[in-house]
Design a protein that fits this description.
The protein is mainly alpha-helical and 103 residues long. The chain is built from 5 helices and no strands. The protein has one domain.
Length: 103
């Protein structure tokens, strides 16, 4: 077993794919804000992510009891970490390019 910390071809490939996905999201967001208002776009994007996350964790890990007990904290965390930053980025992308927004 190789325990070195060097990056092999698979690691570099995964990093490249991650970069394409990350950069592509800003490119497509720049196009989308021309047709859909920024706050609607944020709502749709985060709703889709919430449904996908719910489908992934459905019934696993016994997490629903924890979510029910602390839903206010999770809502605040989601607003601060996801909704507000995405809204600000999408509103900003109505005035600037995708390259600057991704920086």
């Amino acid at each position: 077993m190789n325990t070195t910390n060097g990056m092999n071809a698979l690691t570099w490939s995964l990093l490249l794919v991650l970069g394409l996905i990350w950069g592509g999201s800003f490119f497509f967001a720049r196009i989308a804000v021309h047709y859909v208002p920024p706050f609607t776009l944020v709502f749709l994007r985060l709703s889709l992510a919430a449904v996908a996350l719910h489908a992934y964790i459905a019934g696993r890990f016994g997490i629903y009891d924890l979510l029910r007990a602390h839903w206010r904290q999770f809502l605040l965390l989601g607003l601060i970490n996801n909704a507000v930053p995405h809204a600000l980025i999408f509103v900003g992308q109505t005035h600037m390019g995708a390259g600057l927004a991704s920086s």
